[in-house]
Amino acid sequence: MSELDEFTAQLNAGGPGQGGQQPQRGPGGQPQPNADQIAAMKAAEEMRKKMEARPLTFEDLKGKVDVKWFGHAGFKIHFMDKDNEHRNIYVDIWIDNKDCPEEEKKECPNDADLALVTHGQLDHSMHAPFLIMAGKRETKQIVCTSEVGGFYEMFRRIPPSFITKMQKGGSKDFGFCKLTMVHADHPSTCVGPQGV
What we know:
The protein is an alpha/beta fold. The chain has helices at residues 3-13, 35-53, 102-106, 122-125, 128-134, 146-155; strands at 24-25, 31-32, 65-69, 75-80, 86-91, 114-116, 141-145, 163-166, 171-173, 178-180. The chain is 29% helix and 20% strand.
């Protein structure tokens, strides 16, 4: 099972023992998934197959650099880089918000190069894992603070190879764009298992 397959199964199943349930133990004391987790893993496998079968899909550019609003604080910036490669940067995507275009709710975009997360609150950070999970780009990355990156690794089971961690004042050159993390006065929380 690949890193992405494991991540998909764990993300959808929630992991043993979550939700107040004690994990069942199998031979050798290994935790065994419960019925809900098994159903979630089957659904995740079906979704994975569907995503793998779907070709990489780019949105047509209307100008040199296009900006599309996804409702709330979410934006997509897409452009052609110096090598004539289509690039897609998503910022704080929350697809479930009421202002997100309906066509974007039908299928998760699979063209993300970068998913930028400004802070950990769910309305800014919830869908970055799905953009990466559905993504077809080989060098796809979530870009976030070290704390949010650690949260994604621990509670969303995102492999560290898909995360670029930064801190205020830091810059990172991705070749097709350079990002600098700036100061913002905003509280941030990440809700883990059982609301913690």
